[in-house]
Amino acid sequence: ALGEMKESQFAERIEPLLKDNHYYVRSWAATALGEMHAIQYSDSLGCLLDDSDENVRASAMMAIGKMGATKCAERIVPFLKDTSAYARGAAASALGSLEAIEHAPDILPLLSDPDPRVLCGALYAFGKMKAVAYKGDVARCLKSPFDNVRSAAVSALGEMKAMEYAKDIAPLLRESSPVSGRAASALGDMHA
Fold first, then answer.
1. What are the Cα distances from residue 24, in Å, to 18, 79, 181?
2. Helix (H, G, I), strand (E, B), or coil: what is residue 113?
3. N or C, which end of the chain has less CB nearby within 10 Å?
4. What is the residue-wise DSSP string for 125-157?
5. How far apart are CA 61 and CA 96, in angstroms?
């Protein structure tokens, strides 16, 4: 019977779980609806932005981004200043997935955040938005001590096709970390 169900029927059964008493159920339900691109439930996910649990709020933001619910972008912006690093990073990532370039100036201060998760969210956003006006700010993150931040910066520059930073990315090919693979991929993206 489950094999014969349509994706919309699954989403219909998952949506009530957004109101479950357990935060992890609400969080997983939000994630599932995002994965299904069930945009018809974006208002229900928007309600989770007021949830008391940061995991649920972050999952809701990521799901909204994944499904492309641009009407919810304005509700996500305040989370860029949240006290939770997890929420700040999720907000930036969600706005990036929505390609909400008009919010790039709101995301820019996150490139000075001390938490690498927040930096990665901001870098992801700039890459997805192809926010070329901020490529110099993104390039400064190539000097981060964190592999994941350097990887995110390299990816963002690749998505922006920022060829003028190829000379800064090339030395990262010699690193013995995942950064070297990202560097190779970014250089390829720049030439594509």
1. 10, 20, 34
2. coil
3. N
4. HHHHHT-GGGHHHHHHGGG-S-HHHHHHHHHHH
5. 11
φ, ψ of residue 69 in degrees (nearest 5): -80, 75
Strand, helix or coil for residue 49: helix
Q: Model-level pTM?
A: 0.90
**Rg of the chain's alpha carbons, rounded to an integer?**
18
Residues contacting residue 94 through CB under 8 Å, at least 6 positions apart: 61, 62, 64, 65, 76
| CA count, 13 A, side-chain hemisphere, 137 | 20
Q: How many CB atoms lie within 10 A of CB 10?
A: 15
Tens-level pLDDT at each residue, the chain (192 residues): 444 445 657 888 999 999 999 999 999 999 999 999 999 999 999 999 999 999 999 999 999 999 999 999 999 999 999 999 999 999 999 999 999 999 999 999 999 999 999 999 999 999 999 999 999 999 999 999 999 999 999 999 999 999 999 999 999 999 877 899 999 999 999 987
Whether 141 and 150 have beta carbons less than 8 Å apart is answered as yes
Question: Among residues 129, 140, 136, 141, which one has the least CA distance to residue 103?
Answer: 129
On whether the CB atoms of residues 97 and 128 are closer than 8 A, the answer is yes
